[in-house]
Amino acid sequence: MNRLKHPEPVRVRAVLWILSGVTLLYGAACVYLYYHQQVSYVEGGALFESDLPFHVSMAVKDHWYYSLTALFYQLFYLTPWGSLLTAVFLGVVSVASVVLTGMLLDRITAKQCPASVIFIMALAGSFMMPFFIRGAHFQRYIGYQSASIWHNSTYICMKLLSIGTFSMFLKLKEKYRVGLNAGEWIGFALLLILCNSVKPSFFMIFAPAMFFFLVAELFRKVPFRRLFIFGSAVLPSLAVILGQQLILFGDDTGNGIIIKPGYALFMRGTHPKITFLLSIALPLLVLLFTLKDLKTDGTYRFAWLMWLFGFLEIFLFAETGGRAKDSNFFWSYSAAVFFVNLLAMCKLWEKYRSEEAKRAGKKWIRIFLLYAGTACMCYQTWCGVYFFCRLLTGESYWM
Questions:
Q1: How much is the pTM?
Q2: From CA 59, how far away is CA 63, in angstroms rounded?
Q3: Is 221 left (phi over 0), alpha (psi -120 to 50) or beta?
Q4: E-assigned strands of the chain?
Q5: CB 3.0–4.6 Å: which of 10, 72, 286, 328 could bond 344 by disulfide?
Q6: pLDDT tens across 320-361, in order?
Q7: Are 286 and 374 in contact (CB under 8 A)?
Q8: 136: Cβ–Cβ under 8 A, 6 or more apart, which residues?
Q9: Cα 327–389–117 angle (5° rounding)?
Q10: At what angle do helices 201-219 and 330-353 cross, to 10 degrees?
């Protein structure tokens, strides 16, 4: 290729190399963070505070666990480099999440979005945190609901697998009416099992959303046999869920689940209703201008369905016993916020490229949405980068 005649590909490759370097730097920073979360944390202190040392201790010392990640910790800690291997493992998972997010965005945008833009959105989606306003609440994570979390190892691993599961669902959704082969069905079922084995939170929003998707498809006259085959891939995961519930909420644990509307959602925060809205600032802003797309865009509708079930989970349910103050239902909602964040960015790109939106009658709407949406995305991404950098100094996620 003559680079003088075709300078654009050269610039694009340069941008992609830079973004790749940023991603690798992020991975190295994650390894540093996860390593110090294990070796620098002192019980009762707040230096590099996280759930990781407790997850490792439960697996390695107590041999008590419900998550597949515990098996990795046990394996790593058979060597003298357990802390380092665990940190590298979680660092690789964090980088893989960025890469897989890019692949998911590429699928959602039907490969119509430049690779550099996809890469930027994948990185932004991996960092985005709530729209922080100190007057709403003084803490940056506690009191808000964030999709980007670095203090919980099971969420970090579940996030990777949930991205893969959602991507595979979108792929199979386009062809299941014709029929799925055995390999596709088994692959989808195994992904769901793996994801649930790490943490069941994604399943709690994905399964009901898929159910409503299949019911809607039934009304569109899709043969029931096709619907059943596609939907039955969820069923093996129920055995995993049952086993986990027996471990976490068995009779001897003293833990339970009750219906207590608003308790978990408003448990923390100076102004929880405001912080709830600020936590989905970008998706909510974009939704206000793209409501009609919920009728025509199945992926957009599905993401918001997952969000709805995540919201119902944190609004309706609460835990009792030793887990009463842990806010564990928020893991599902955090995953839901992650996906509506991604879809919101895709919608911004779509409106930027849309010829219909460029018409004179809609020009001001398009301009406002693009500028306001991009500014919101950049600020929420900055909130995540700033939070992450402070974590690297050893500061608690309760900051």
A1: 0.94
A2: 5
A3: left
A4: 256-259, 317-320
A5: 286
A6: 887 777 778 899 999 999 999 999 999 999 988 876 666 655
A7: no
A8: 269, 270, 271, 274, 275, 278
A9: 95
A10: 50
